[in-house]
UniProtKB/TrEMBL annotation:
<dbReference type="GO" id="GO:0008234">
    <property type="term" value="F:cysteine-type peptidase activity"/>
</dbReference>
<comment type="similarity">
    <text>Belongs to the peptidase C1 family.</text>
</comment>
<dbReference type="GO" id="GO:0006508">
    <property type="term" value="P:proteolysis"/>
</dbReference>
<keyword id="KW-0812">Transmembrane</keyword>
<protein>
    <submittedName>
        <fullName>Cathepsin F (inferred by orthology to a S. mansoni protein)</fullName>
    </submittedName>
</protein>
<dbReference type="InterPro" id="IPR038765">
    <property type="entry name" value="Papain-like_cys_pep_sf"/>
</dbReference>
<dbReference type="InterPro" id="IPR013128">
    <property type="entry name" value="Peptidase_C1A"/>
</dbReference>
<feature type="transmembrane region" description="Helical">
    <location>
        <begin position="40"/>
        <end position="61"/>
    </location>
</feature>
<dbReference type="Pfam" id="PF00112">
    <property type="entry name" value="Peptidase_C1"/>
</dbReference>
<keyword id="KW-1133">Transmembrane helix</keyword>
<dbReference type="InterPro" id="IPR000668">
    <property type="entry name" value="Peptidase_C1A_C"/>
</dbReference>
<feature type="domain" description="Peptidase C1A papain C-terminal">
    <location>
        <begin position="180"/>
        <end position="245"/>
    </location>
</feature>
<keyword id="KW-0472">Membrane</keyword>
């Protein structure tokens, strides 16, 4: 066989082999399993849902960052209103009494109560004869909320009505040789302790009784010693009663 014939034979064999390989490759692709139309539609729908969810999350974060904290939103809401002058005192009030409102709606509600309280204090101060009024920790509460912590003195009056009060009668002291001053303030004599905050507990009967004992001790012994109201509350049976009682129960 000549060289040319041998080369032609090799080319023919390679061509046949290549054709066979191409056919096998096509056949093997045709026999592979493919996704159905429903599967493809499901994949597309799932990807769209995931994309929409991601966009929603991003928008929420952007919205929160844009609006800011409840305090910042409150300032934006009332900046151009007549209540604007109350914003700075309200923020100081929150810092002083450690207020942390859960939502903007709650803060707006408390701000409205605060404005009403502050305006009432200003009206009282206008007609005051020397009394100084100020904000307390109840300034952001409604009137009915404040009533939850008020005392009901009827129980105390009923107890006093059924008691023999002879033990409370004390002969007055006469001082004929002394001239009475036009005014007298025990605070300047260091006989009165500082004002204390009873919070929302219905225990003014304890605070008033302890204040009397503190002053009596200061006048008699010359020592102004603050005493513990909490100790009296804890020792009153049943224990830890934040309810209406009488000064007699605190003093006994």
């Amino acid at each position: 066989m000549s060289t040319n014939n041998r080369r032609d034979s090799l080319i023919s064999e390679e061509s046949t082999s290549s054709s066979t390989s191409s056919i096998l490759s096509i056949d093997s692709y045709e026999t592979k399993p493919r996704f159905s139309k429903f599967q493809i539609a499901g994949l597309i729908l799932g990807s769209l849902i995931v994309t929409a969810f991601c966009v929603l999350i991003v928008n929420q974060f952007q919205c929160s960052a844009h609006l800011g904290s409840p305090k910042q939103q409150l300032i934006k809401q009332f900046t151009a209103t007549p209540q604007h002058d109350f914003l700075a005192p309200f923020i100081k009030f929150n810092e002083k009494f450690n207020r942390d409102y859960d939502s903007v709606e709650e803060m707006v509600k408390r701000f409205a109560h605060f404005v009403g309280s502050d305006m009432a204090i200003m009206d009282l101060q206008k007609f005051s004869d020397g009394t100084i009024y100020g904000l307390t920790g109840l300034a952001d509460k409604a009137l009915d909320e404040r009533g939850d912590g008020k005392e009901d003195c009827r129980d105390g009056r009923m107890l006093l009505d059924n008691m023999d009060l002879d033990w409370a009668v004390i002969d007055p002291r006469e001082h004929p040789d002394e001239s009475m001053p036009s005014s007298f303030d025990w605070r300047t004599k260091r006989a009165v302790t500082d004002v204390k905050d009873q919070g929302e507990c219905r225990n003014s009967w304890v605070f008033s009784s302890i204040a009397v004992v503190e002053s009596m001790n200061a006048i008699e012994n010359g020592v102004l010693q603050p005493l513990s109201e909490q100790n009296v509350i804890d020792c009153e049976l049943p224990y830890d009663r934040c309810e209406t009682r009488t000064p007699r129960m605190a003093l006994r």
